TrEMBL record:
Lineage start: Bacteria, Pseudomonadati, Spirochaetota, Spirochaetia, Spirochaetales
GO CC, alphabetical: cytosol
Full protein name: Molybdopterin molybdenumtransferase
Residues in MoaB/Mog domain copies: 167-305
Record-linked PANTHER family: GEPHYRIN, MOLYBDOPTERIN BIOSYNTHESIS PROTEIN
Function noted in UniProt: Catalyzes the insertion of molybdate into adenylated molybdopterin with the concomitant release of AMP.
Reactions the enzyme catalyzes: adenylyl-molybdopterin + molybdate = Mo-molybdopterin + AMP + H(+)
SUPFAM superfamilies xrefs: MoeA C-terminal domain-like (SSF63867), MoeA N-terminal region -like (SSF63882), Molybdenum cofactor biosynthesis proteins (SSF53218)
One protein family per Pfam: MoCF_biosynth
Example GO biological process: Mo-molybdopterin cofactor biosynthetic process
Functional pathway: Cofactor biosynthesis; molybdopterin biosynthesis
Recorded GO MF terms: metal ion binding; molybdopterin molybdotransferase activity
The keyword Cell division appears for this protein: no
Classification via InterPro entries: MoaB/Mog-like_dom_sf, MoaB/Mog_dom, MoCF_biosynth_CS, MoeA-like, MoeA_C_domain_IV, MoeA_C_domain_IV_sf, MoeA_linker/N, MoeA_linker/N_sf
Native organism: Spirochaeta isovalerica
């Protein structure tokens, strides 16, 4: 598996960016570090509704000079024995050094009685959260909180990477689209819809080329069209040892140079990967759990690499809740698991056609090659899906 990542990490493509409004930026890949143009907050401001007074004020009855709402600037300087009513978010008036919250006082006309001292100053100082020139965001997949941070700095637009266009071809004479009637021996094309949904990330433009039967001429025609219209082309089916598994030959005839075929990974062993001067092509096995996992692990890795990011999936550590015994151990295996009573429970899973096993999965654990068993109680790392 490490060799597969090494090959993917060697791939590059020109990084193209675009400016998008903040409302379209969530989930997109930030193109470059963002520096704050302003101090945050831009002025010393009130953290509580209350009375702004001098830092050294000791009086218990203070004269109220004015009321300062958020957005307003007070005009009266705070002198000993005086204060101004101030609202949360308002700029601190000149001379003020602390704020007593309103519930610690009683107002009496033009004066206020301070009943209780406030141990906090209740001021957020200029630049306390970030300073102009600070690097606030580094390139990443933008999350809703990052959109808020960009807005707080005053950016209405942001520069994001245009993720590679992805095309998908389903192959297999036995496939029917969902909504159609199945004849004996046929199954639904789940890969097409699943992979397009997976690819609909980071702003990837996706194209669907439908189901191409196991007919070399028709396949070659669709492959050539998809190569012309996308950066990454995904195919499913026809990469194993069967009499109709001619995808590798068709890809090589279309000028796609094989970089590897067959990997020691379960599920997904027959994976084929190659490139030409503008395309990257994954010939994936037909089994739907294989396509799901191969996309999560390898295709996402390549997409982020081509976008200038290191793919960094989230893992959570936990204790295994049940023993795992393996009948074969010649491949690194991804197993679906769920959280139950603070333990990691392997989901009953019958192999790479058992797609619905993923319905209750929180993540995948990785069992390395040569490992024959993992005992209940052992620490495992769950890759969140
Ligand atoms: N003699 C051998 N046979 C097989 C081997 C092997 O090493 N030697 N490898 C097995 C493994 S592992 C896998 S995985 C499969 C992969 O085979 P293919 O890539 O050639 O895929 P197909 O045979 O076309 O399909 C496998 C399976 O998946 C179903 N399928 C295909 N497309 C879709 C789709 N779009 N949506 C849902 N399901 C799909 C297809 O009907 C088959 O049931 O080969 C083993 N055989
Ligand atoms: O390698 Mo295959 O994807 O296990 O069934």
């Amino acid at each position: 598996m490490d060799e597969v990542f090494e090959i993917l990490d060697r791939q590059t493509a020109e990084i193209v960016t675009e400016k998008v409004p903040l409302g379209k930026a969530s989930g997109r890949i930030l193109a470059a570090p963002v520096l704050s143009p302003i101090d945050q907050p831009p002025f010393d401001k009130a953290a509580m509704d209350g009375w702004a007074m001098r830092a050294d004020e000791t009086g218990k009855v203070l004269k109220i000079e004015e009321t300062i709402a958020a957005g307003e600037v007070g005009v009266k300087e705070i002198e000993p024995g005086t204060c101004s009513a101030i609202m949360t978010g308002a700029k601190l008036p000149v001379g003020a050094g602390r704020i007593i919250r309103v519930e610690y006082s009683r107002r009496d006309g033009e004066t206020v009685n301070i009943d209780k001292d406030d141990p906090l100053k209740n001021i957020i100082y200029k630049g306390e959260n970030m300073k102009a020139g600070d690097v606030v965001l580094t390139p990443r997949v933008l999350r809703p909180r990052d959109i808020g941070i960009l807005a707080s700095m005053g950016f209405a637009e942001v520069e994001v990477v245009i993720a590679p266009a992805i095309g998908f071809i389903a192959t297999g004479t036995e496939l029917k689209e969902p909504g159609e009637l199945l004849k004996d021996g046929e199954i639904y094309n789940s890969n097409g819809h699943q992979l397009l949904a997976q690819a609909d990330i980071w702003g990837c433009r996706t194209s669907y080329y439908g189901i191409t039967p196991d007919d070399p001429e028709k396949l070659a025609e669709t492959v050539n069209r998809a190569l012309g219209e996308n950066t990454i082309v995904l195919l499913s089916g026809g990469v194993s040892m069967g009499e109709f598994d001619f995808i590798p030959r068709i890809l090589e005839e279309a000028g796609v140079q094989k970089l590897f075929h067959r990997i020691a990974v379960k599920p997904g062993k027959p994976l084929w990967f190659g490139k030409n001067d503008r395309n990257f092509v994954f010939g994936m096995p037909g089994n739907p759990v294989s396509t799901f996992i191969l996309f999560e692990v390898f295709v996402k890795h390549l997409i982020q690499k081509l976008c200038g990011l290191a793919y960094d999936p989230a893992f959570i550590r936990g204790a295994l809740g049940r023993d795992i015994r393996r009948k074969t151990w010649d491949r690194t295996e991804f197993l679906p698991v769920k959280w139950e009573n603070e333990e990691v429970i392997p989901i009953s899973y019958h192999g790479s056609s058992h797609l619905n096993a993923l319905a209750e999965a929180t993540g995948l654990i990785i069992v390395d090659r040569e490992v024959k068993k993992v005992e209940k109680g052992e620490t495992v790392y769950v890759r969140i899906i």
